[in-house]
Amino acid sequence: xxxxxxxxxxxxxxxxxxxxxxxxxxxxxxxxxxxxxxxxxxxxxxxxxxxxxxxxxxxxxxxxxxxxxxxxxxxxxxxxxxxxxx
Length: 86
Fold this sequence. Notes:
Layout: H1 2-19, H2 24-81
């Protein structure tokens, strides 16, 4: 529904401006006005996405870091314990 709203808005407003013979400067400033209106929506979406990722994948990432530490320590121990042939 949200996409449909923006689709209709972005399509209808320039057509309405042309039908009422509006000043061409209004048509020139229309993209700037739309960007100013959309930027808060994008900002909120980005913040919500980061919150969602942290909430749902935060434990997985902590577990992965712990596993990487274990693997890193195991790799160092195996390198030190391996006999060197020279």
